[in-house]
């Protein structure tokens, strides 16, 4: 009671003071806004001044509902305090008071907590209130960006989609700004379109999505795009950026180039030519085609291959890039030249040059480039240039000539021609080393006669006694003829090789000395062979075999062996001779003159044995006589040779 009285007294005094206008009883002061992160604690301060002590004050905390009415959430005085039941704050608020400041703390701030708060302080005499707003923040998740994967054509009429940026769960609503190469993009009529869509999640947080559409040009092909996200935080703003994306821009070619990829350097017939084409655009809707003159050529994308080129492939090649969207065509061209070298033409191809005259021939090959011509004979270069001149032809001039035409500038270009030359003239027998020889009786000797001359000479083999021998072989060569004859040696023999053509005759004489090793044997051999030559050949062969065996076995011991082996025969002959002499002794006595026959044959054998060993070569040399005989014979025997 006493307190009541005292209080009423005090109030009366205050009213009095107030009426006097000395001071206001209570003053309240609050910040405009209070900021807090979602889920964290918010502290709402209410500063006041009061003439009375804290104990005399009563504090009411209200919030303003969406419909605008005040709703108390907390009450506090010196002796008691409580949170009002049935509000969104009931379980999360606490109030404290200290001199000059009343504090309302709200824990686990919700988005709905973003309301206006009223702090109402009452003294004994009057009440004052302050107001503030709570702002709630939540930083969004890291933003994402997605670029368009397909390429964008510069031919598109409307802005094309570039990409989308998205930022989730921010509060308050974050902003998205598109950047191209560090420059922010602003929407522009028909050029840049930015479409924003904002979603309020069930949590009350904002998710923002922004799509960029733009008209692209070729210059944008290397551009980098990204999004910047700005959002409020207590006391300011923050910013994050997405990673960069680039786009594929399809642009048509404005120029096309075509070139010969291979071979490098000059092209020759037979080469495979590879042409390559490239446009400076990248539109997938465009394709390349090749043309040579009016002819369209099958190609594989940007490559054209011409196999086995000919001179007809020379000319201008067009490569055309056609855009299937716009049907625009752009062409590039290149000119190629296929070099050629025609087969060599040798004039004349076959020629007959009279001995002593000049050989002349030309070799030409039509070509698109400078050529080099050289003549070869027997693998050796004999002349340069396309004209071949050989003065004063001899038999050595005859033969096969080859002209080789090459192109120094281009490797592998070559053509060849052939010239056959015959030199007209009298036969000329090439003298062999040995025209005189000693041969065992009954051996067979091959005699060769190599004759130069044109027309190819006829070769006739004869023996000194006029017998004609058959050629065993005859071979016509560039120079003339090579003829061979096989001669069986039965006795000393002279063989003539006579070569004849329209221009004359040449002859060669072979002298063969027949040899055997015993006097007795030789006599028998000689007599038999002379007989066999006139008779049949089988008979002679049998006799040869019997006689030839003996000399072969006898050969090494020579004289001594001959006497021993042939001793029996000699004795027999002597006995027969003695018997004959005895029988015919009387007759011989009467006829002295006829006894000479036996003596002569014996003497001849002895001389032959000696000459075999020492004098053969010397005996037969008599060239002058041979030639004389040849000349004489020629005139007589020409008609039979025609056979
Ligand atoms: C309110 O705050 C005071 C002082 O900090 C504390 O002692 C008390 O337990 C709190 N009450 C509630 C309900 O949180
Ligand atoms: C977002 O954009 C709006 C409108 O331009 C602006 O008022 C606001 O301040 C921006 N927010 C941020 C966080 O920059
Ligand atoms: C983007 O740019 C990078 C590097 O500049 C490049 O490697 C990549 O291929 C580009 N991507 C596209 C789609 O153009
Ligand atoms: C190349 O062409 C020539 C002339 O047309 C022909 O003779 C030759 O056989 C061809 N070669 C190839 C490999 O096709
Ligand atoms: C080839 O290209 C040149 C320019 O590079 C041009 O002047 C010429 O007319 C073209 N020729 C043809 C046949 O298209
Ligand atoms: C071959 O020549 C020789 C030597 O000149 C001559 O003796 C012989 O009669 C000629 N034979 C023929 C068939 O012409």
UniProtKB/TrEMBL annotation:
Sequence ranges assigned to domain Ig-like in this UniProt record: 24-135, 143-246, 252-331, 343-420, 427-515
Gene Ontology MF terms in the entry: vascular endothelial growth factor receptor 2 binding
GO CC, one annotated term: cell-cell contact zone
Signal peptide region: 1-24
Biological process, per Gene Ontology: homophilic cell adhesion via plasma membrane adhesion molecules; regulation of Rac protein signal transduction; regulation of wound healing
Recorded coiled-coil stretches: none
Compositionally skewed regions (Low complexity) per UniProt: 531-556
Keywords: Disulfide bond, Membrane, Signal, Transmembrane, Transmembrane helix
Locations listed in the record: Membrane
PANTHER family: CELL ADHESION MOLECULE 4 (PTHR45889:SF3), IG-LIKE DOMAIN-CONTAINING PROTEIN (PTHR45889)
Name this polypeptide is given: Melanoma cell adhesion molecule b
Lineage of the species this protein comes from: Eukaryota, Metazoa, Chordata, Craniata, Vertebrata
Gene behind this protein: MCAM
